[in-house]
Write the structure tokens for this entry.
Amino acid sequence: MGTHRRLVLVPALLVLVHASTLQLTRPVPLAPAPPALRPAPTTTPEQLLADRGLAVPVKGVPRHRLKDTFDDGRGKGRKHKAIDIMAAWGTPVVAADDGRIEKISRNRGGGLSLYQVDSSGRFVYYYAHLAGYADGLREGQDVRRGDVIGYVGTTGNAPESAPHLHFAVMLLKGEKRWWGGEVVNPYAALRDAS
């Protein structure tokens, strides 16, 4: 009697039948499918700002006293796009973050004001309605978080009866000029910083 071999295909198994023995050979398993790719988490400008660990830019004002005035109306259908930090006239205004004084200015709306670029070059902080600047403050000067840079006032279009710091933040994009960028609400970053 001759030895006969026969190949029988069964789904998912290869069966080799031999006259004297029965051998089962399993197919090599396929590599597992890769896990579904998840999109990278989106980091919002507000989250990037919160990572900076900002100081409250008015000396002595506790975080719990801050008010979110970012979306308040300001006449002619425009939004405030900043927060106002109320304080007595002459209270020191401090750098909210490490960075450089980019521009010292005076304008009709903001009065005595200044622009600071953070140390990463990503954010611009705008401080307005100042009563004055810190002695010797100059454009291009490096400042550290907490350095006195000015004093709360009522210059520009601020009511004389309501001294405050108008504090705005912009996320720089493209050419990274101090006067442009995407406006970011600083309220949560200031309120929640430790």
Notes: The chain has two helices and twelve strands. The helical segments are 45-50, 187-192.
